[in-house]
Design goal:
The complex is a heterodimer of chains A (about 120) and B (about 110). Chain A is mainly beta and about 120 residues long. In chain A, about 0% of the residues lie in helices and about 55% in strands. The chains are: A mainly beta (about 120), B mainly beta (about 110).
Chain lengths: ~120, ~110
């Protein structure tokens, strides 16, 4: 099976712009989670989508949003970019095999640099 | 709230030695504890995980132990090799999200 794919891999934007990142989960996985990774804050949860519905959201401002499509692909959007949004954005695809059988697999990430 | 403390932050070992990384969590309802390895320029890779109904799990040179009473779990790597050098993250599941430790930089010297 192909792994989690994320596009683009690298992105440079300027303050005030907006950006859209894309994630395609592993085939058959219906849940997608997004995380932000920075040297200072580590890996932080952004949100999770399952069957096109947001099930959980982390402590990020409303500038961060996402959605999931019927084919389980997901996008996240960051509006009015700030310098502090520079980070590696990771998408994780979740396999649910039953009770206590959830496993998250990460994509390679999108490296966003805000100038 | 949910919190995971990971120690040490850096660990240097000689090739062939063992490495141990420990994590302590606060959410007693957590039932799933994965470990990820992240190499430079890549996303985290799941290397082993353990669920709350199991106390220990082993996969070749890697093992994880879980003590639910004390709320801590550990990663053990035996016979370390240079390719084990990476950043290792522990995590706990809280609700529908993973809460990660701060990471351990493991350096295996040959």
């Amino acid at each position: 099976k192909a792994g989690v794919t994320q596009t683009p891999r690298y992105l440079i934007k300027t303050r005030g712009q907006q950006v859209t990142l894309s994630c395609s989960p592993i085939s058959g996985h219906r849940s997608v989670s997004w995380y932000q990774q920075t040297p200072g804050q580590g890996l932080q949860f952004l949100f999770e989508y399952f069957s096109e519905t947001q099930r959980n959201k982390g402590n990020f401002p409303g500038r961060f949003s996402g959605r999931q499509f019927s084919n389980s692909r997901s996008e996240m959007n960051v509006s009015t970019l700030e310098l502090g949004d520079s980070a590696l954005y990771l998408c994780a695809s979740t396999h649910r095999g039953g009770v206590l059988q959830e496993t998250q697999y990460f994509g390679p990430g999108t490296r966003l640099l805000v100038l | 709230g949910e919190n995971v403390e990971q120690h040490p932050s850096t660990l240097s070992v000689q090739e062939g030695d063992s490495a141990v990384i420990k994590c302590t969590y606060s959410d007693s309802a957590s039932n799933y504890f994965p470990w990820y390895k992240q190499e430079l320029g890549k996303g985290p890779q799941l290397i082993i995980d353990i669920r709350s109904n199991v106390g220990e799990k082993k996969d070749q040179r890697i093992a994880v132990t879980l003590n639910k009473t004390a709320k801590h779990f550990s990663l053990h790597i035996t016979e370390t090799q240079p390719e084990d050098s990476a950043v290792y993250f522990c995590a706990q599941r809280g609700g529908n999200k993973l809460v990660f430790g701060a990471g351990t930089i493991l350096r295996v010297k040959s």
